[in-house]
Every structure is written in structure tokens, then in C-alpha cells.
Amino acid sequence: MYPKARLDALSDGIFGVAMTLLVLDVRLPDDFQPHDARDLTRGLLGLTPKFLPCVLSFVVLGLRWLSNIHLRSHGESCGRTYAEWWLVHHLLITCVAFTTMVGGRFVAFAPSIWLYAGNAILISAVSFRLLALTPSFERADHVRERRISLGLLIASSLLAISWSFVSPRQALWALAINVASPVISSRMGGSK
After folding, report:
1. How many domains in the chain?
2. Is residue 192 part of a domain?
3. Does some domain include residue 175?
4. Residue 21 in domain
5. In terms of pTM, does the model score above 0.70?
6. Do 7 and 88 contact (CB within 8 A), yes or no?
7. Is residue 139 in a domain?
8. Among 50, 114, 121, 132, which residue has the least CB neighbours within 10 Å?
């Protein structure tokens, strides 16, 4: 048996680091030398294609983290199977920084969208497995909310993949749907 509190503490750290790493790829080139405020403004605006995927990934990870802390179990420990799936889940969370970087740099190429969305789908699939392994939830509505948000992440990821065949540059916007997850859960009777 593994103490659940230790897994939760490590989870908070992993999410914190993964969310912080997202912004490291958003930087002005080393050789950028603005001559005036207008040049600097243009340079900063030129970072938008890298910054938007970063913000989107931050929101998606933030929603996953909030979902994790909202869902509580009465159990103070967990078994080996749960801990192993938990590690797989957090490995996929750490990969979000990489998939965001690829998506930000190569947004015009559909495979960058496939990589990002594929990682999101795997995170959701492993999260569903963790839900099945977590004993004695405190409130059933949190489980329903979690399932709705995971289903929405899978659906928006599949939409992004489909959209990438038409317009890779705009495909990641499909994941912005996840911002509506709390509202959708509420309307479906998930929270009061």
C-alpha cells in the first residue's frame, strides 16, 4: 500500500512544474534588438503563435489539476496497480510541455496537432482507468463531473485532429471547448 497523501503531494509538484515549463519556449530570439517601442511591440506580438498554445495548455492542465483535487477518496492509501497507473498519468502530464512546444513551433503542420491531441486523449484514457481504480469516492457528483470533463477533453482532441486536416493553424482552438467544462458539468447535473 502507498500513502495517498504522498501521491497527492507529488501530483501537485508535477502539475506545477509542467505548467511552469509551458512558458519556457515563449521567448524573443537572442539576436532580437528592437530599435524603438514599435519594434518591441511587433516582436512581442510575433510571439502570439507560441503564447496561445501555452495559455491553452495551461488552462487544460489547470482544469485537470482542479478535477484531481476536487475528487477525493476516503482511502488514505492505494494499491500498487493504482500507483502504477497514477505514474503513467503523470508521465503524460509532463509530456504536455513538449507537445505544446511542438504545437507552438510547428502549428502549420497537422502532425504537431496529432501529437498534442493524442497526448490529451491518452491522459483522459488513463484518467478513466484511475477513476475505475479509486476506492470509495466522497461524492458521486464529483465522479460525474470528472467523467464529463474527460469525455470533453477526448471529444475536443478528436475535433482538433479532424480540424487539422483542414486548417492545422486553427485546429488547437478545438481544445478551447474545455474551458466550458465546469458549465457543461453543471448543466448536466454534475454540481450544485
Report:
1. 1
2. no
3. yes
4. yes
5. yes
6. no
7. yes
8. 132
